[in-house]
Design brief:
Layout lengths: L24 H11 L1 H8 L11 E6 L2 E6 L2 E2 L1 H5 L12 E6 L5 E5 H17 L7 E5 L5 H12 L2 E4 L6 H11 L3 E5 L2 E3 L2 E3 L1 H11 L5 E5 L13 E3 H5 L11 E2 L5 E5 L7 E5 L2 H15 L6 E4 L6 H13 L3 E5 L10 H9 L3 E4 L1 H10 L2 H4 L8 E5 L5 H10 L6 E5 L35 E4 L11 E6 L9 E2 L3 H9 L10 E5 L5 E6 L3 E4 L2 E4 H8 L5 E11 L3 E10 L7 H14 L8 E4 L13 H9 L15 H14 L1 E4 L9
Parallel strand pairs: 4-17, 6-7, 6-8, 8-11, 11-12, 16-17, 16-18, 18-19, 19-20, 29-30
Antiparallel strand pairs: 1-2, 3-13, 4-5, 9-10, 14-15, 15-23, 21-22, 22-24, 24-25, 26-27, 28-29, 30-31
Bound molecules: adenosine-5'-monophosphate-propyl ester.
């Protein structure tokens, strides 16, 4: 296979036309959205059903943007009630496929009925507008239904990814002050049952704010119930067959908090609102994937991440699309499970991660070739940079060189896609590995370290110069961190924390994180979070985390650990630390390798020389140490490097399948 490198200007052979020409529809729409954002978004917002129109399109008091000020709406109404008056009512909303091969079909009418019942159940348990609910559920229909039910009654929810541990759940439940945890007996993963209810009990016992645990019967195994605290969903639903009027929510009322990793040891709660967010996700889905009434959409992301919030649950329902939702692992029971599902449901539009594509690539093209993928019309990629080889494999073996790929770059904080091809506006050429151009409303620049705009062809920090409707409202209960993280380095501009290069054709290449955030199989985790978890173990004196490029997962976690006196490096202690990390954070925190060292390399001022760690982790030489960004002198770095390589005992984790987002 011919290799295309990042920045390659060759384009994939897609239908031709007057793409991105100055008179093209995309350019015209983008220009208008930047020159007159208020006029542009007022026009777009007519597609929503407002209970009361807004008084002002945008109130921008940097760094806080409030969209559609004074407007009232309800997102569950957008997703369900308004379809009850159209033919969408009897359309399939979700084809749900269980890991064990069981399945369920939910029409919009059925989803509407269930959402009302679940909303009534929450109310019956005392959940009111503004209360917080933690949803710790696998990929089963109850999860989107609870998200819709919370939106309906104005309860703020936080979804906690089901592979997080009981401790990680407790951290989030405590921070958000959840009154109720919703969980399931357990979840199926590659033929095993994971004990979600037990983890929820662990969290509840650590968090006095929790009054009730609602339990969905899913795996059929026995779980202990505490009658004072735990309720079966089925029991309470038996009393809740009723309509619940949707609350009139303010456009800027919080909808959910979603925890994600940043530069600190504690995950931060990204707070999203109602009006701007609803509009942003629906419009961006249409633009990036050219959806229509015939679309059968499958976004493979877990709902525990922003991709699942925006593009498994809310946007497809707002647009009245039919979606596939799959409970299990991509390679269970066979490596062709996903291709089987595409053929079974006639999926037209398929959206997944580069890690998944690379995993399938490793297993060979004969697996997708066994299945009829001719229903596919559009492909997408998200979560991490996609290397051109993986892009081309996807284009050839899944898209059969006939359909377009939307590589969508965005973040938990942005709510929806920011940079992506927009075939829903105008067809255009693609370059394997580039997310192409900004969405309407997204004003991008690439800056150097001093905040000067860089010429095309040079790599720098991507910034967004104007607010957009899907922008986060705040960091939950931490506005200082919000201002510092995103707005302080280049005042007035939003800083996503990624490197970017704009090529000569103005195509954007997103080149990975510029900070201490690691992306493992698309999961976001910070070095600080790993370090703070590992030093919580009594055998550990100090620790530093970094990453190493990984052929399938994008990046793999590498830890450097100094042990306390009396503990010597061994496979047992390595396994023990791995278990500790999994129990503190979850399986996604599993390190690929642990280096036990006598000392962590530090500058005189006490900063860890992270580049040195990376050099050791990747087996590189220290190279030009004058480029160290921590102010270490060359001699200092060399001495530390020698000490590090001499003293290191390292242990690898046996190979694990990537837990795909
Ligand atoms: O580094 C970028 C990478 O994922 C980060 C955001 O992670 P998270 O908030 O977990 O959201 C993931 C789902 C949107 C970004 O800062 N990223 C996401 N999509 C891409 C990407 N990097 C390159 N190309 C992408 N398409």
């Amino acid at each position: 296979m011919k290799t295309m490198t990042q920045g390659d200007t060759r384009v994939a052979h897609l239908p031709t036309g007057s793409y991105y020409s100055p008179s093209g529809e995309y350019d015209e729409m983008h220009r208008r959205s930047i020159e007159d954002p208020e006029g542009f978004w007022a026009e777009q917002a007519r597609s929503l059903d407002w209970m009361k129109p807004w008084d002002k399109v945008l109130d921008w008091k940097a760094p806080y943007a409030r969209w559609f000020v004074g407007g009232k709406l309800n997102l569950s109404y957008q997703c369900l009630d308004r379809h009850m008056k159209t033919e969408v009512k009897n359309k399939v909303a979700f084809y749900w496929e269980g890991e064990l091969g069981d399945s369920q079909v939910l029409t919009y009418a059925e989803l509407y009925r269930l959402t009302n019942n679940y909303a009534a159940a929450l109310k019956r348990l005392g959940v009111k507008r503004g209360d917080k609910v933690a949803l710790y559920l696998p990929m089963i229909p109850a999860l989107p239904i609870f998200m819709l039910a919370c939106a309906r009654i104005g309860a703020i929810f936080t979804v906690v990814f089901s592979a997080f541990s009981g401790q990680a759940l407790a951290d989030r439940v405590e921070d958000v002050e959840a009154k109720v945890i919703v969980t399931a007996t357990g979840m199926h993963r590659r033929g095993k049952i994971l004990p979600l209810k037990d983890n929820a009990v662990e969290a509840a016992s650590k968090c006095p704010c929790v009054e009730k645990i609602i339990v969905v019967k899913h795996t059929g195994h026995h779980v202990e119930m505490d009658p004072a605290r735990d309720v079966w969903l089925s029991d309470i639903l038996a009393e809740c067959d009723e309509y619940v009027a949707p609350e009139e929510m303010d456009a800027n009322d919080p909808l959910f908090v979603l925890y994600t990793s940043g530069s600190t040891g504690k995950p931060k709660g990204i707070l999203h609102g109602t009006g701007g967010y609803s509009l942003w996700i629906a419009k961006t889905l249409q633009w990036a994937f050219k959806t229509d009434a015939q679309t059968v959409w499958w976004c493979t992301a877990d709902i525990g991440w922003i991709t699942g919030h925006s593009y498994v649950v809310y946007a497809p329902l707002e647009l009245g699309l039919t979606s596939v939702m799959y409970e299990g692992a991509p390679d269970y029971p066979g490596i062709d499970r996903w291709w089987q599902i595409i053929a079974k449901y006639g999926v037209t539009t398929f959206y997944t991660s580069p890690t998944a594509i690379r995993m399938f690539m490793r297993h060979g093209e004969e697996w997708p070739a066994k299945h009829d993928l001719s229903s596919l019309k559009m492909l997408g990629s998200v979560g991490e940079p996609i290397n051109p080889e993986a892009w081309l494999w996807y284009y050839r073996n899944i898209g059969h060189e006939r359909i377009s790929i939307s590589d969508t770059w965005w973040q938990t904080e942005t709510g929806g896609f920011m940079i992506s091809p927009t075939p829903g506006i105008q067809a255009h050429p693609l370059k394997p590995g580039s997310a192409t151009k900004p969405m309407p409303g997204v004003d991008v620049a690439v800056l150097d370290a001093d905040g000067k705009e860089l010429p095309n062809g040079q790599t720098g920090f991507i910034v967004i110069r104007k607010p957009w409707p899907g922008m986060l409202l705040d960091i939950y209960r931490n506005p200082e961190l919000y201002e510092k993280t995103y707005w302080s380095r280049f005042p007035g501009y939003y800083l996503p924390g990624d490197y970017c290069m704009k090529d000569q054709d103005n195509f954007l290449w997103l080149l990975g994180r510029a900070d201490e955030v690691i992306k493992v199989a698309g999961h976001r985790i910070s070095t600080a979070e790993l370090e703070s978890a590992i030093v919580g173990h009594s055998a550990v004196a100090e620790a530093a985390a970094c990453s190493r490029p990984d052929e399938v997962k994008g990046e793999a976690i590498i830890l450097f650990v100094t042990l306390r006196k009396g503990t010597t490096p061994s496979v047992e202690i390595k396994n023990e630390l791995t278990r500790h990390l999994r129990a503190t954070i979850g399986t996604l925190a599993t390190p690929e390798e642990i280096f036990f060292v006598n000392l962590l390399p530090k500058t005189r001022s006490g900063k860890i020389m992270r580049r040195l760690l990376k050099a050791v982790a990747t087996g590189a030489t220290i190279g030009d140490t004058s480029t160290l960004d921590d102010g270490a002198s060359v001699d200092e770095a060399k001495a530390a490097f020698a000490e590090l390589t001499d003293s290191a005992h390292h242990y690898k984790t046996s190979e694990k399948k990537p837990d795909i987002k």
